[in-house]
Amino acid sequence: MPTVDSGSGARLLVRRPPPGGLGDLYPISIFVDGERVARLMPGESASSTLAPGRRRVRAHNTLLSRTVEVDVAAGDDLHLVAANAPSWWTTLLGFLGSGPLKVTLTRE
Question: Which residues contact 92 (CB under 8 A, 6 or more apart)?
Fold first, then answer.
């Protein structure tokens, strides 16, 4: 991941909502341009300084992932929320005992 000193880069902040939701037991790993920068549990956050340009931010919950591409410029603040959420698979396979949770990665 291209990182730079904080004076010439963009700031990325990724957070997980506080405990109390479905999937709290499962960590979400955050990757920027293929490099893991954080492993978040509910209520945790992580920040990183990025070089300006097009970046791929990916959240992965050990089974499924979500990727967003963002263009950042020097001085930008990019805030994202990563969370586990139910999907139709969760409901369908829940009848068998458990179903996969999708991971979401949304801009704040």
Answer: 99
Q: Are 56 and 32 in contact (CB under 8 A)?
A: yes
pTM of this prediction?
0.82
Report pLDDT digits (tens) over 38-59.
999 999 999 999 999 999 999 9
| CA atoms of 85 and 15, how far apart (whole Å) | 15
What gap in Å lies between CA 71 and CA 82, rounded to an integer? 19
Distance CA 11, CA 7 (A): 10
Q: Write down the architecture of domain 10-107 according to CATH.
A: Sandwich (2.60)
Return the domain boundaries, the chain: 10-107
SS3 85: strand
